[in-house]
Amino acid sequence: MRTTTLGSTGPTVSALGLGLMGMSDLYGPADRDESVATVHAALDAGVTLLDTGDFYGMGANELLLRDALRGRDRDDVVVSVKFGGLRGPDGAWLGYDTRPVAVKNFAAYSLRRLGTDHIDVYRPARLDPAVPIEETVGAIAELIQAGYVRHVGLSEVGAETLRRAAAVHPIADLQIEYSLLSRGIEAQVLPTARELGIGVTAYGVLSRGLLSGHWRPDRELAAGDFRATGPRFQSGNLEHNLALVEALRGVAEQNGATVAQVAIAWVAAQGPDIVPLVGARTRARLTESLGAIGLTLGADDLARIERAVPAGAAAGNRYADYAYAHLDSER
């Protein structure tokens, strides 16, 4: 497993990270034992970056990660935690809270659930419009001074917010969606992050399964799977997007790879400062994703991929309107 550094000030991590959200929330039922086994398989393969959120399953995801890390050397793992998302008992989204007092409160509960004395990268999940980013970052900086957090991260913020945050404290990385179907960061966000020495951890590299190469147009989604409201999965849009996947499949076959491996490798090929996060929930899917690490895409490959899935080719926004409103990165 290759390693890289998150930005100019962040920790050293594996060239591929594992996102744990789907193991506890938002993608329908998951097998907890298989989820833990998948985390173990990732660690054994050299994956060191594990990403969770305190609101994934209302704390259940952090507890799962605690159990998966039991008996492992904590210093061998970089744990990234998102906070700020407010949920109701029914799972409803109630907004975001990143006030300094809330930051410290959320951190206290995460430390207890994770069974650890520190969080490696701590980040607000979204920009709270009621709280200046300077105040939120300042609170995380105080947690760093106290030894509870190692690095500041951000998630789904735009170029202006990046600049304001970096003026308060060095930012290790920006977690943001980036894939062949979601390339909005290329215009302003990515250049700004590079100017400021901020790394990028890219989530949604398989566009929530669309780019996996395994999605069937007649697939029925389980109860609680948020993709049911996703614009790209709606009738009309879905067929268009799957046609793009079939075009990409031709490129994959020429390289002796799967569609998912090419999609992940494409993200990684956009720069050494970008670390793809894969949301594998099973060991089989993890094994496939890990195959992307050894896949080198040359200039001809990248040109063929661009022709198969050009920028802006996706049909539908990456989130439903209610979620889109909270994306500072899209403003």
From TrEMBL:
One of its GO terms (cellular component) is cytoplasm. Residues 16-308 form the NADP-dependent oxidoreductase domain. Gene3D superfamilies: NADP-dependent oxidoreductase domain (3.20.20.100). InterPro entries: Aldo-Keto_reductase, NAD(P)_OxRdtase_dom_sf, NADP_OxRdtase_dom. GO terms for molecular function: oxidoreductase activity. Keywords: Oxidoreductase. It comes from the Bacteria. SUPFAM superfamilies: NAD(P)-linked oxidoreductase. PANTHER family: AFLATOXIN B1 ALDEHYDE REDUCTASE, ALDO-KETO REDUCTASE YAKC [NADP(+)]. This is Predicted oxidoreductase.
